[in-house]
Amino acid sequence: MIAMYDGRDGLQGEKQNSGERVPRHFEGVSLPLDEVPRAKRGNSMQALVSRMLEEYEGGKINRRQLIQALAVVAVGPRAVAAPESTFQGVEINHVALRVNDVGRSRDFYQKHLGMPVVRQSSSDCFLGLGKNFLALFKGSEARMDHYCIAIQDYDVKRVTEELRRQGMNPDQPSGSNRVYFPDPDGLTVQLSAVDHSA
Prior knowledge:
2,3-Dihydroxybiphenyl 1,2-Dioxygenase, domain 1; two-stranded antiparallel sheet; alpha+beta; 27% helix; 198 residues; 7-stranded mixed sheet; 5 helices
């Protein structure tokens, strides 16, 4: 197989027809086919480095390629930068579920996950989850109501305008600082400030 290291956890490549040992290419650096996966798991780092040095000394790779390969092996796969985005998501602030019986669901999450009640009424319950929360709303059908992603520099007016500019149809309930919109599969997404609480 000939493969190119793509900067993520995987290697991309295509099969060769011959049965010979074909080198992999690691950011343009030739590496032995059977040593790259083991090195990525930490089982054969020394063998991989030795092989890279042999290829350098044998003239198969140049100094720059050797340094690049050693750097990739030393730091492991690097994160691939996301393309410029509309907003910068920071964390999942909360998940809201529709449940048949709020009290029963509250008891379940308290018993099995130790989630304290932040506040509750006869039709809803907010359970603490670290600095975030799980919201339970009374519903005729058990399902996810929405999930909320906290973003940097949240301003409801600016966010609503930008979502419209991006071709979405956001819903901002009257008198609130909340904004909701559907994702491509119809799931409801809410955006909030990082410090949004139950």
